[in-house]
Specification:
With 493 residues, this protein is α/β, with parallel strands linked by helices. The chain is built from 13 helices and 26 strands. 30% of the residues lie in helices and 26% in strands. Strands 1, 2, 3, 4, 5, 6 and 21 form a seven-stranded mixed β-sheet that branches. α5 links the parallel β9 and β10. The N and C termini lie far apart (72 Å).
Amino acid sequence: MDEKDVVIIGGGPGGYVAAIHAAHLGASVAVVEKDRLGGTCLNRGCIPTKALVKSVEVLLDARKANEFGVEIGNINTNFPKIMARKSEVVNKLALGIEQLMKAGNISVHKGIAHILSSQLVRVNDKEIVARKLIIATGSEPIPLPIPGSDLPGVLNTDEILELKELPESLVVIGGSHVGVEFASIFNGLGTRVTIVEKLPLLLRSVDEEISKRITQVLLRQGIEVKVGAAVKAIKGVKSQESRVKSRGEGGLKTKDSRLKVVWDTPSVSATGKDEQEAIGQIVLVAVGRQPYTEGLNLAQLGIKVEGQAIIANERLETNIDGVYAIGDVLGKRQRPMLAHVASYEGEIAVENALSCSSRTVHSRQADYRAVPNCIFTYPEIASVGLTEKEVKGSGIPCKVSKFPFLACGRAVAMDETAGMVKMVCNAEDGKVLGMHIMGAHASDLIAEGALAIQLGATARDIALTIHAHPTLSEAVLETAMGQLEGSIHFRRV
């Protein structure tokens, strides 16, 4: 029987980071993973979608190359090659994680873990004694409980990454960051895209002003957006049959089947409802994810849950001594379901697990005040901290400043002028409470906002920091100056 200081169930961005961190701290570690190291993020989420995002960026740049004085001939997309590159990127990074596990002398067991007790885990026919146990089993796509959700061509966010051919049309059910990202990717590749969202706004996790702005951008890009639309069914339909004369033989050919997404909206009609629809070759269900705990034996162990989510405190401890939980398996309670949050929690759980037996490792609590959230649309969106609405709703006196990318020299040179930086600060002490960006490289620029909130920095601290010229980061500088005497390159209205 094997014995380890720490046994981690799940090898995703929470689990494998926790394993490597524990090994760095001198612990003996085992990881149990039923699929492939890297979890959803690496294999079916963050990384493959960003590989696709890059392909679309190259395509969009090529289409406007002539504006930069670069003449290019015919521009075509090779969807199988795009998908093959996506897989190559995933494989390369997965191999890197495997090498890191070997370098850390971490034993990896492939299979489904069954927790027999707080200190004993069985995987396949092997039992592992765990001095400390960390549950990091992640999440799975939420199914849509409506008629027709099981029809061929209705895909979840995992399955759409395995497409072999570019669909002619796509209906995305769900206006979350995942749904909007996929909509942007396929629209950029030439697919006709419709987003159907039951709430009145897309991207409910971002600042309302940014949400409204990106919706207008998506519309200008040719994406149809239907909000306030609660989908009630998906139906199969067939295009009208047409006589087609194929080489060597005649007869009827039926065009590919299509899917119809149906919803009700308020109407002034006698019934009070008006049925609407969107038709697509493929339907993507992107209504969110839910914690995955299958086979863990949580009820018998007495581990407290809320729905399917494990309950853990700020030290990532469950109610069972020596058992910790991190990442998406905790659900959305008081923290977002993001890969970098899982990694952060993995480090904290490991330190807390080892602190009782080590003088050099100290315990700490999770702090979610400065969690950046990035959405890879065109242009990107990134946010950290509180939105303007949240600050005003809390009663904190606040001041809001904005700076458009149109006034940033580097953005103009790049021809990436869509978007802005928005900063929300405490009106009394100037501390940064939230930063929200829509624009080129927003996912990189948001780090400055995250650091400011984490350190309790003020707008003046940012304004007094020299920012390189010409860079996009000057937009952050100018926004901070807008909290004070005013931006230099943007006239205050």
